[in-house]
Design brief:
Elements lengths: L9 H14 L5 H5 L6 H18 L3 H4 L13 E3 L4 H9 L6 E5 L5 H11 L4 E5 L6 H7 L8 E5 L19 E3 L9 H4 L5 E4 L1 H4 L2 H13 L3 E4 L6 H10 L5 E2 L17 E2 L2 E2 L9
Parallel strand pairs: 1-2, 2-3, 3-4, 4-5, 5-6, 6-7, 7-8
Antiparallel strand pairs: 9-10
Length: 281
């Protein structure tokens, strides 16, 4: 999924994919992909190469990734998009059976929005996704109230270029890095600021980097969320592999689309199921 936040468009990513594929050599191309710029184009190439290797070897991608057993079904949070307080409450009522709801906010009447979602789904854990929209003053003022509103995590409250304010901040709920966290180079900046990292394959630039990121984050004692952009089942399929054992999973992108890929991922009351070989891996 091209992401304008990082200067990507459909045209630019298509051009990157074409150029990146032409530059690949036949010897171990997946290692060569790591030399490309991290982003949606590298993600597309890397995940395609994993799929190709799996199909040529007639072995599942999870086995090629070194897992001891096949991936299982995982619970994924559902999303309430930013809207008026009333509309978000109605949307949350329809998701009251979910285990975790992601609440999108924008720096406006966010405490009222969160309270409305909590009232509509009182037994559900909430993950608040501010997408860099809060000020440091808002964060300090609102943090103490969040645990009583069912909030389990706050994701990227401050702009990525202003998150130094998180250092030494007393917090009542964990804070997760999203826009501040891309690939392994990000660890140097986030270690003293965040309690959790959100691994998205379109940011890491593919499954290869995502698996390395997850292992390093866990070794550092950071909690792990595996997230997604708004994208189809084909984009989610390799992320399901990364999401095994993650603390929080946010892979509901296909459920927000009018139409999905052929052989889509199966979503049901148990969660999201691993992909079939017809889709990926």
């Amino acid at each position: 999924m091209p992401y304008a936040r990082y200067g990507e468009s459909v045209d630019s990513v298509c051009a990157e994919i074409e150029a990146g594929c032409r530059a690949l050599k036949t010897a171990d191309p997946r290692k060569q992909v790591l030399a490309l710029r991290a982003g949606a184009a590298r993600n597309a190439i890397d995940c395609a190469l994993w799929d190709l290797e799996a199909k040529r070897a007639n072995r599942p991608a999870w086995e090629l990734a070194g897992r001891r057993g096949p991936p299982g079904t995982i619970h994924t949070m559902r999303t309430v998009s930013v809207d008026s307080v009333e509309n978000m409450k109605v949307a949350a009522e329809q998701l009251a059976d979910a285990r975790v709801i992601k609440v999108k906010v924008d720096g406006g009447a966010d405490l009222d929005r969160i309270a409305a979602v909590h009232e509509a789904a009182p037994g559900v854990e909430l993950v608040i996704d501010a997408n860099e929209a809060w000020s440091a003053e808002q964060l300090v003022a609102w943090l103490p109230a969040l645990p009583n509103l069912g909030v389990a995590v706050v994701e990227q409250p401050l702009p990525a270029d202003g998150d130094a304010a998180l250092e030494g901040l007393e917090r009542s709920v964990p804070i997760c890095a999203d826009e501040s966290f891309h690939d392994r180079r990000s660890f140097a900046n986030i270690e003293r600021r965040y309690d959790m990292v959100n691994i998205k394959l379109d940011k890491t630039g593919g499954l290869t980097e995502a698996l390395l990121l997850k292992a390093q984050a866990e070794a550092m004692g950071l909690r792990v969320m595996v997230g997604c952009m708004l994208a189809s089942s084909l984009a989610m399929a390799p992320a399901v592999l990364v999401a095994q054992g993650a603390d929080i999973v946010d892979l509901d992108g296909p459920l927000l689309l009018a139409a999905d890929r052929d052989h889509p991922l199966k979503y049901d009351a148990e969660g999201v199921h691993p992909p079939t070989p017809e889709l990926w891996g």
